[in-house]
C-alpha cells in the first residue's frame, strides 16, 4: 500500500528500500526513484509522482478488495469481519483517493501491485533452523517466479490464525524437500551463504544471526 504514517516521527522496524531499476514483480512497471533521505512522509518531495499499478490478476477476486472510493463499508485500522486490517506498526492514514498510506514511507509505487488488500497484507514466513557441523542453517525454498531463494510462507487467509498459516505454508512448500505453490525446491541454507534471498528475507536472516551472535 502507498502511504503516510499517522505517527511520522516513529522509527520503522525495518528501513526498507526498493530498487527503481528493476520492474515490479511480474510487470514492466518501474518504481519512482525515492532517495533514502526522502522516504519519510514528513520530508517534502513535491516532484514525487509514482506510477499507479494494480495487477489485473488481483482485481475482482474473492480475496481482493474493491477500490476504496467505491466501498464505504470497509472498517480500516480494525478487525473487519474475518479480515485483519490493523497494522502492527501504527494506525495508518489515507491519501486523496481514500487509499491507506504506507506507515513505512514512500515506496515509489501507488496501488496494490499483486497484493489483495488495500492497507496491511498480513503474511507468515516460518524461519526454521538447525545447527549442522557447527553452522546455523535455515530452511529455504526456491521461488518459481524469480528463481531466488526465500523463506517458505504466504498470506494469512481471512479468519485464519497466524500459527495456522505458519504450519500450512511450511507443510505445503518445504516438507519432504519438495515444493508446491510458488516454490520449486527446498533445502537447508547456512546463514553465511552468499545465496541471494527474495525481497526483505535477508533482513530476517540478519536478525536471526544477531540473535545467535553471528557477525
From TrEMBL:
Pfam families the UniProt entry points to: NUDIX (PF00293), NUDT9_N (PF25969)
Top-rank lineage group of the source organism: Eukaryota
Q: Which residues form a coiled coil?
A: none
User: Region (Disordered) spans which residues?
Assistant: 45-67
- Give every Nudix hydrolase domain span: 120-215
Name the InterPro entries on file.
NUDIX_hydrolase-like_dom_sf, NUDIX_hydrolase_dom, NUDT9
Give the lineage. Answer: Eukaryota, Metazoa, Ecdysozoa, Nematoda, Chromadorea
Q: Which organism is it from?
A: Teladorsagia circumcincta (Brown stomach worm)
Q: What is this protein called?
A: Hydrolase, NUDIX family
- What keyword terms does UniProt attach to this protein? Hydrolase
Quote one Gene Ontology molecular function term. Answer: ADP-ribose diphosphatase activity
